[in-house]
Structure formats: structure tokens, C-alpha cells
Amino acid sequence: MIHQAILLLFLLASASASAPSCPDITYQLGPCISYLLQIEVAPPPACCDGVKYLSQYSSDKEDREAICWCIKGAASMMGLTDFALISALPNTCGVSVKLPPISSDIDCSQTGSEDVEEGAKELGNV
After folding, report:
1. Of residues 104 and 15, which shows the higher confidence score?
2. Whole-angstrom Cα distance, residue 106 to residue 89?
3. Where are the domains of the chain?
């Protein structure tokens, strides 16, 4: 009985660690919009809280890919053209995140772990 309870807790913990949905990602990064649109000179604390929240999902390739596609799509829909600000957010917020440098032409599905490591190092994100 105890073993079954431990297994159930493990399975529930594993399920809760899956990647956030795109609406959740955009909600977490919503406070960053004024910074990304260059209305503010620094990201507000709530923006960095969202980046920190997403950092817990950046170690798994599928999660990174989902986050990349979501951010890329949301940025394009909003008409953001300075993708460098998006890619630099983790470093600006002082958060270590292994995400690819997001741009309008990146293919998020082709971003392997070596590419992510190299791109994140270039941006100072790790």
C-alpha cells in the first residue's frame, strides 16, 4: 500500500512538471510587453518573475521547443521586431535559462541541445 502511494505521488509530481501551455507562457511573459515594445527601459519585476517561472521548463528539449514556438508566434502577432530583447530577457533578469536565441526565422524544432547551449552562452543566459 505504501509503495502504491509513493508511486502515485511520483506520477503526480511528474505530470505537474510538464511544459506550460502557450496561454500560460504568454500570461507569464505578459508583464514584459512594455519592455519589449521599448516603452520601459528595464523589464518590470513581474516580467522577470515570469522568466524565472519558465526557467524551470528549459532543461527538456520538447519543453524548450514548445516555449520557443509560443514566444515566436506571440511576438510575431504583436508585431515585435526586436527579437534581441526577447532573447536577452533571461540575462537581463539574471535568470539562467537554456533557450535558443529566438528570432523571426528560427525553426524551433531544429534547435538541438548543442545549439541551445551555444546560443545561450552567446547571450549570457547560462
Report:
1. 104
2. 17
3. 19-123
Query: Is the model's pLDDT at 98 over the cut of 80?
Result: no
Residue 125 pLDDT grade (very low, low, confident, very high; cuts 50, 70, 90): very low
User: CA-to-CA distance for 71 and 119, rounded, in angstroms?
Assistant: 16
**Stated length of the chain:** 126
CA dihedral 111, 33, 35, 113 (to 10 degrees): -10
What are the grid coordinates assigned to 36, written together?
519589449
Nearest to 75 by CA among 49, 101, 97, 96: 101
- Cα–Cα distance measured from residue 80 to residue 70, given in angstroms and rounded to the nearest whole number: 14
Q: Which CATH architecture has domain 19-123?
A: Orthogonal Bundle (1.10)
Residue 60's alpha-carbon distances to 6, 17, 115, 122, 123, in angstroms, are 24, 10, 14, 20, 19
Grid coordinates representing 89 are 530577457
